């Protein structure tokens, strides 16, 4: 075995668990009309993944699962039989999800499909934990835990423990493929403002989402989010207000404290709410100190450019990292009148560029650019050296931020062009609650096993 030159853990066991849980939700979402689903795992780690997925699917949905092992000689699939360890007739009209841990060339999965082509299954989907984006066979996974772009000399490996509770995926740089298994959970490398700058410098995009409570923050931190914003959008999505203006500093600190407790890796940035920094720089400093001291957050964010210069400088002088926010600044909604795209006209665009330069000169570690033309964001990006995080600002920035409830399909009425929905949780939650109501009414919940 050759020596490991360098290895990098891409997903720790918590993160892998989150990916598997997410895939389980997606499988349910795509198959919610089914009663059962077949998980066919490629012998080895693919089979272990199928068992983990089955467990998660059964915990997040009413679907029952059948787990099968697909055996083949991965090096000589044509010379060997491709078999499954169950009664093939049982698969008729069933939805099958073929699983493997890592999608390399796609050869194993392509041959692994063979037994299912001899029977009239309803559909076949493919789930992989890691997709290396190197397929040479015409395969696109239906569900991907983690997408990587690796060189051919890198070897990616996952390790699934027998007790199915922990699974590791590794990225290993080596001239030849090597087998390495890791049995210890490594230290989580926390995201800092310095790491964000490094990410920007090497062209790695920064993924940021909002969160306002412990449970959701735990999930998104485990799923690998880089920055969590405890946004004053909590005023809209958590409290049901029409604007961000009513939320108080105490309420922001409450949300931030819950988020910080959940987070192991992400940088936690907290919005200073409307009315707690505009009055004076002393007030801005006091608000920031309260946020940092009482919640344990890592940085604050405030809206505006030249108007808040003194406040930004004063907060920074106390050693508190500051993130700026330009473009559509929702705390000024009554000044703008609408939530439409900002800085389309030259004058406002020029002011935005000057404000961005000023915030960088003051020492902000990053700036959110909200709802501005992509060309303007690109221009700002070509001038500034600190990370720029866009929301409706196009692709030429260093990262993206979305409000979590919007991207998960919890908020239904908010449909701006920039929003991509990654799930339809409203349907999933509605389906689950309807089923629960039915079960309670029909007296089928709780059953014999669900009582003491
Ligand atoms: O409060 C918030 O959620 C925000 C994002 C939209 C950037 O400021």
Write the layout of secondary structure elements.
Elements: E1 6-11, H1 13-30, E2 36-42, H2 45-60, E3 64-71, E4 83-84, E5 95-103, H3 107-112, E6 123-131, E7 143-147, E8 154-160, E9 167-173, H4 193-201, E10 206-210, H5 214-222, E11 227-230, H6 234-237, H7 249-262, E12 267-271, H8 281-295, E13 299-301, H9 309-317, E14 322-327, H10 333-336, H11 346-362, E15 366-370, H12 374-383, E16 388-391, E17 399-402, H13 404-407, H14 425-441
Parallel strand pairs: 2-3, 2-5, 5-6, 6-7, 10-11, 10-17, 11-12, 12-13, 13-14, 14-15, 15-16, 16-17
Antiparallel strand pairs: 1-9, 3-4, 8-9
Helix pairs in contact: 1-2, 1-5, 5-7, 7-8, 8-9, 11-12
How would you characterize this protein structure?
By secondary structure, the chain is α/β, with parallel strands linked by helices. It folds into three domains: 8-170, Rossmann fold; 193-421, TIM Barrel, CATH 3.20.20; 425-452. The protein contains 14 helices and 17 strands. It has helices spanning 13-30, 45-60, 107-112, 193-201, 214-222, 234-237, 249-262, 281-295, 309-317, 333-336, 346-362, 374-383, 404-407, 425-441, and strands at residues 6-11, 36-42, 64-71, 83-84, 95-103, 123-131, 143-147, 154-160, 167-173, 206-210, 227-230, 267-271, 299-301, 322-327, 366-370, 388-391, 399-402. The strands form three sheets. An eight-stranded parallel barrel has the order 10-11-12-13-14-15-16-17, surrounded by six helices. Strands 4-3-2-5-6-7 form a six-stranded mixed beta sheet. A three-stranded antiparallel beta sheet has the order 1-9-8. The longest helix is centred in the first third of the chain and has 18 residues, at 13-30. 42% of the residues are buried. Bound molecules: 3-methyl-2-oxobutanoic acid (KIV). 3-methyl-2-oxobutanoic acid binds at residues 210, 229, 231-233, 271, 325, 368, 370, 391, 401, 403. 3-methyl-2-oxobutanoic acid binds next to β15.
